[in-house]
Design goal:
alpha+beta; 5 helices; three-stranded mixed beta sheet
Length: 138
């Protein structure tokens, strides 16, 4: 989900920090490692990978365990760009990738009040948590 801005992010995949944080939260919720384990940066097949595809694959991993995402709460930490105009689109796309309603996806933006690498505009950070329904124990 590219947001127009004069500066971009660099990464092995598409460098979507928000979707990567959500994917890590989902994988972590079922103790299934992180995206670096499943989508290693030294794997040529993941070069320039669309992070929405990555998130769909994470959802499939969860489904194979009999689990499903219930909701997501995420925050993007950056001085710029402002994400407010894009939040509804982001929620819809994240919900679609995870198989949940956009109403179950919260995306917020905040700044770090010009502190640290995000405050200096050297990068963007994101944090995410999710609720996952697990299969009933047998």
């Amino acid at each position: 989900m590219a947001i127009p801005h004069s500066v971009g992010l660099a990464g092995h995949s598409d460098a979507d920090v928000l979707l990567h944080a959500i994917a890590d939260a989902v994988l972590g919720s079922v103790a299934d490692g992180d995206i670096g384990r499943h989508f290693p940066p030294d794997d040529p097949s993941t070069r320039d990978m669309d992070s929405l595809d990555l998130l769909r694959q994470v959802r499939e991993r969860l489904a194979r365990k009999g689990a499903r995402v219930v909701n997501v709460d995420a925050v993007v930490i950056a001085e710029a760009p402002r994400i407010a105009p894009y939040v509804d689109m982001m929620r819809a796309r994240i919900g679609e990738a995870l198989g949940i309603s956009a109403d179950s996806v919260s995306v917020k933006g905040t700044t770090s009040e010009r502190l640290g690498f995000t405050g200096r505009g050297e990068g963007i950070a994101a944090q995410a948590v999710c609720l996952v329904a697990l299969p009933a124990s047998s």
